[in-house]
Amino acid sequence: MFARPHLLGIEPLHPTEITALLDRAQHYAEGARAGTRPEPVLAGLTQVNMFFENSTRTQASFEIAGKRLGADVMSMAMQASSLAKGETLIDTALTLNAMRPDLLVVRHPHAGAVDLLAQKVTCAVLNAGDGRHEHPTQALLDALTIRRAKGRLHRLTVAICGDIAHSRVARSNLILLGKMENRVRLVGPPTLMPPEVAALGVEVTDDMAAGLKDADVVMMLRLQKERMDGAFIPSEREYYHRFGLDAAKLAHAKPDAIVMHPGPMNRGVEIDGTLADDINRSVIQEQVEMGVAVRMAAMDLLAGARARAR
Ligand code: CP
Description:
Blueprint: H1 15-34, E1 46-51, H2 57-68, E2 72-76, H3 89-97, E3 103-108, H4 113-120, E4 124-130, H5 136-150, E5 157-161, H6 168-179, E6 183-187, E7 203-205, H7 208-212, E8 217-220, H8 236-243, H9 247-250, E9 258-260, H10 273-276, H11 284-309
Parallel strand pairs: 1-2, 1-3, 3-4, 5-6, 5-8, 6-7, 8-9
Helix pairs in contact: 1-5, 1-11, 2-11, 3-4, 5-6, 5-11
Residues 55-58, 129, 138, 262-264 line the site of phosphoric acid mono(formamide)ester.
């Protein structure tokens, strides 16, 4: 079902593993809504969160997920760690590994850093986002949100719009949605498309009307200024005019299309604030809710796989 030592990306996962993760997450989501206490499947295990980059949703939900399942959770304040004295990422990881944690949750600004770290430690590592590479639990929580809203996770048309080039969320979603046999369209200005876009095998357009036409799901992305090393758009005002999602542009999608955004949002830049808050179209808050369920499921399955391997 799910026998991997780590969760480093969507790329290596088989569709059956994705479904197993989502089914377990659905179980936790239903339990949370019913107000039932989950089995403390992580009792006696230690979870360490290492976030080398800012986070609200991912860090908080990993912490809540671990606590709900009974783990002893420690979130490192990386800015206050010995990294500031010049200690390397690997030495930091080896030091924490010597304290024998069971789960290490890592976010890092450099693509590949989490994979490297996973090769050096003896516990399960979960990638909480590495540079432009992958954000696997975000794609899984997006998939669960879509499956709950649409009743399936295949043969849907999904428009992923905005800053594709700098987005690990777009990359992980693109891989996951492709594995589950959905039609994906990338929509945004050519300056915000990755250089390898032609090789991705998906439809690409800089026209929101064409990109959103008959879409079941419209997924908006943040302009990731922290990863931009130059001017990629003329101005935020012009960007919003051409690519910001508002009711008029959404009218090109199916009447029951859902609106998604991984957060944090720039209201009035990539999405109209009123639309983002419209509970008849926007599932943004449900995405956040599913984040806890998906992270509970991921840690449960990884810890279970490790216990079975012992
Ligand atoms: N979507 C997401 O990763 O949000 P945070 O950066 O707040 O964790």
